Amino acid sequence: VMWEPMGDGKKIISLADNNILLWDLQESSAKAVLSSSTALEGKGQLKFTSGRWSPHHNCTQIATANDTTVRGWDTRSMRQIYCIENAHGQLVRDLDFNPNKQYYLASCGDDCKVKFWDTRNVTEPVKTLEEHSHWVWNVRYNHSHDQLILTGSSDSRVILSNMVSISSEPFGHMVDDDELSDQEDQHQEEKIKEPLQDSVIATYEEHEDSVYAVEWSSADPWLFASLSYDGRLVINRVPRALKYHILL
């Protein structure tokens, strides 16, 4: 079940087997009315594994995963708008939209990879992360700083990555010209010429079993939690040095 990410929160989408159902909450909020629906058609037992509602495009788009395929849908017409066949070599587990770049979508799956897509051209991923050694169950963009990516896997690890080259600030934090001296200005121009490097910031190994869920705090952009099969919930912070590097 997915709540509309923006707006008045009166719309809900549910994925059931091979069906997408769009519900409208009535004023009383005690009853939901089915406003539209569509179904995946094809051979075999088609079933959605996950979905994500885009916060962009006036909340008229969702992305779904079934088997190895990722699809985009327009909620107004319930028609397919893009399709990434064989997005992953095995089952796609999770999806997440970049909160600041409207066409960027992350996916992860049982091929141990995390992929980043530009939904305007889905022939190839923009970037691929191959740091995990088993199924990747979750991928999450940071709500405030979209270069920070969190992933959780059956390899019992949580990885925090800095995907700055495909973030909304690929050249770092921009400084106003008025604030720079001539020497600083020249140095800043040299820095601006190339995007900052992507890297793994930290690998967290506090879990002893498969990590099934990772989530950023909605109140503190530097705080995140992870949950594993052994029932352990771990809360961590983004390393302080990186936090100040992003902010200053």
Number of helices: 2
Helix content: under 10%
Quote the beta fraction.
Answer: 35-45%
By CATH's scheme, which homologous superfamily of the domain at 87-170 and 195-247 applies? YVTN repeat-like/Quinoprotein amine dehydrogenase
CATH architecture call of the domain at 87-170 and 195-247: 7 Propeller
Strand-and-helix sequence, N→C? EEEEEEEEEEEEEEEHEEEEH
Low-confidence stretches: 188-192
Query: What is the number of strand segments?
Result: 19
Neighbour order of strands in the largest sheet: 1-2-3-4
* CATH-assigned fold name of the domain at 87-170 and 195-247: Methylamine Dehydrogenase, Chain H
The rounded distance between the terminal residues' Cα atoms is 38 Å
Secondary-structure-derived class: mainly beta
Protein name: EIPR1 protein
GO biological process, one term: protein ubiquitination
WD repeats: 85-121
InterPro entries: Beta-prop_EIPR1-like (IPR059104), EIPR1 (IPR040323), WD40/YVTN_repeat-like_dom_sf (IPR015943), WD40_repeat_CS (IPR019775), WD40_repeat_dom_sf (IPR036322), WD40_rpt (IPR001680)
